[in-house]
Design a protein that fits this description.
607 residues; alpha/beta; Glutamine Phosphoribosylpyrophosphate, subunit 1, domain 1; Rossmann fold; six-stranded antiparallel sheet; 26 strands; binds 5-amino-5-deoxy-1-O-phosphono-D-mannitol
Amino acid sequence: MCGIIGYCGPKPAAPILVEGLRRLEYRGYDSAGICVVENGHLELHKKKGKLAALSSVLPPNVVGNYGIGHTRWATHGEVTDINAHPHIDGAGKIAIAHNGIVENHESLREKLTDDGYVFISETDSEVIVHLIHSLYEGDLEAAIKQAVQLLTGTYGIVAVHADEPNRVVGARNGSPLVLGIGDDEMFLASDVTAIVAHTKQVVYIEDHEVVTITPDDYRTTDLTDRPIDKKIEFISWELAEIEKDGYTHFMQKEILEQASSIKRAMQGRLNKETATGHLGGLNLSSKELLEIERVKIIGAGTSFYAAMVAAYLIESIGRIPCSAELASEVRYRNPVVERNTLYFAVSQSGETADTLYAMRELQRKGARVLGICNAVGATIPRESDGGVYIHSGPEIAVASTKAFTSQLTAFYIFTLIMARMRHMSFEEGSNFIRALEKVPDQVESILARSDKLAELAAKYAHFNNVLFLGRGLNYPVALEGALKLKEVSYIHAEGYSAAEIKHGPIALINEQTPSVFIVTNDSLREKVISNMKEVKARRGPVIALCVEGDTEVMAIADDHFAVPSAHELMYPYLMMVPLQMYAYHTALVLGRDVDQPRNLAKSVTVE
Ligand code: M6R
C-alpha cells in the first residue's frame, strides 16, 4: 500500500526522501513523488510508475532540507502523474501526502468547490490539502488538527508549509505513522524500514495524534492540542535484514532463510524437561489457559491459511474446538463473543486493516484477542491483549513466505501447551518437541534440492491453470500453494480439498490443467491417491508432492518432488516450502516482477 516519509534536518531532503521511498517499495505502489521546500517555495516532483521514473525527472540541484515523499497504490483515480502524491493547494504553499481513504471526500469536494477551490486530481486525498488551506491561519499544525476532525475514514498524513521553515507535521488515524529520532534530524514514515538506515530510535504515533518535527525536536499532541508523552522505542533489527544481501530477490532470500527463522520462532519456547512449551506474551495464567473452551483465529491471505492449519491442530491435537475465519467477514457479521473463548488475530505486518478492524470489533464486544505478529511495534500487537511475536525478521517480498512457517511455529507451540494441560502425556509431548525441532534441518535439506523445483517450474510454467489439492492439515497448504503461484506468476491457480474435486472442479481437468497433489502417509493417503487416479483417468497432468520412498505415488504421478519422512503433523512445513520455491521459479521463468507483483501491496491498510 501507499508509503509516506517526511524529513527535517541539516541535509538536502530530496535524496533522503527518495531513498526512504525505495525502502518502502516493497509495500507495493504505482506512482511516487516528493515535495521539498526550497527557499520558501514548494519543489514538487511526481511521476507514475516506479521510482526510477521519478528519479529521471528529479533535477540534481534540489537542496531544500525539509520535505515529504509518497508512494501511491491507487484507490481513487487512475495511475497518473497528477493523481500521484504529494498534493498541493492552489496557492502552492501547502503540500500533503496521505495514506488511507477519505470516505466523505465527495461531500468535502463539493463544499470546497463551492468555496472556490479548484481540484486537479481524481483522488480523495486532494480534499485534505484544500481543507487545510481553508482553515490555515499561520499555523500548519493547528490547521491540520481542525481539518482531520472533518474527515471520515482513515489517514496517515505528512505535510509541509512553504512559509513554516524546518517543520513537518504528521497526523494519524488508522494508517500507521512512526517518528524517527536522529542526530539533529527527524523523520516521519509509514513504517520503520524507511528510516532504519538513519536511526533506530522511534516513537509510534497513535490514532488521533498529531506530531510536529523540527531538526532537533518533536512534539506530540492530541487533536485538542494536549501534549502527549510518548515512549521512545528501539528497533532491534539490522539494516542488513532489509537488504537483498547478495540474493537476486527478497522472495528467494526469505524462502531460503526459513530453517533459521523457524528455529528463531521456537527459541526459548520449548521445554524438554516438562515436555511442554512456553509463550510468555500470552499473558494468561495456567488457570486461565485451562478455562479456555474454544479458540477462534482471524486473519487474511497467507495469515488466514496459517490460521486454518492452526485450527486443525488446536482442535485435533489440543482437543479444544477451534475455527479460523477471514477477518474481513468477521467484522461485518456482528459476531457473537462467547465466554471462555480465546481469540487470535494473526498478521505478518500487524497493520492489515481487515484484521485490525475485526480485532477491534471483537474487543468492543468483550473478547480477549491475542496477536500473532511479525512486525514489532505494529498496531495489532500494540492494541491486542497480549500475544506472540514470531521473530521472522523483516519480510520484504510482497508474497509472504517465512512469516507463514513462523506463524505455524507459534501455533504449534500453543497447541503443545494446551494439549499438555489436558490429555497429552509427557511422552507424547516429548515426541512432539523432537519432531518440531527436526523441522529446520528438514527444511534445509528440501531447500538444498531447489534445482529440482526449478526444473518442474520450467516444465509447467506455460500452463494457464493449475489446481493444488491436499487434505487435512495439507488442505490449507494447498490453498496457500495456489495463492503463492497466482501472486507471483499470475497463473490462475486454485486450491481445494482433494475430496472436493469430484464435487465440481474435476470438470476443469484435461491435458492442459495440471494438478499438484500433496500426499503424505497419513490416514487420508489412500483417498488422496484415489483422487490422483481420477485426475489421471481424465488426462490431467499430475505433480505429486510426496514423501521420500513413496514409490506408489511416484508411479502414478507424471512428476514428483519428495520431502523427508517426518512426524505426520510436521508436513505443513515440509510441503509448503517446496511450493513457495516452485512459485518463485515459475515467476522467474515467466519474467515476472517477483518481489512486487502487479496490483499487490505488502501491507493492506485499507479495507
Ligand atoms: O500482514 P498480514 O499477514 O496481515 O497480511 C495478510 C495478507 O494481506 C497477506 O498474507 C497477503 O495475502 C500476502 N500477499 C500473501 O503472500
